[in-house]
Amino acid sequence: MTDAQLYTIVALCVYAVSMALIGCISYGKSKTLDGFLIGGRNIGAWATAFAYGTTYFSAVVFVGYAGQHGWNIGVGAVWIGIGNAVLGCLLSWLLFANRTRKMTKKLNARTMPDYFEKRYNSKGMKILAAVIVFVFLVPYSAAVYKGLGALFSAVFPGVETWVWMLIIACLTAVYLVAGGYIATAYTDLIQGIIMIVGVVCLVAAVLGHGNVGGLAGLMENLRNFESLPDDPNPITGSQLTSLFGGSSFKFLCFNIMLTSFGTWGLPQMIGKFYAVKDTAAIKRGTIISTIFCLIIGCGAYLIGSTSRLILGGRLPAGGIDSVIPTVLMEVLGSGTLGIVLLAVIMILLLSASMSTLEAVVLTSASAVAVDLIPAVRKKATKPEAQMLLTRLLCLAFVACSFIFATQNIPIIVSLMSFSWGVVSGCFIGPYIWGLFSKKITKIGACAGILSGLLTVGGATLVISLQSGFSAAAAKSPEMGVTAMAISMIIVPVVSALTKNKAEEAQRVEEIFSCYKEN
Question: Which residues of the chain have pLDDT under 50?
Answer without folding.
Answer: none
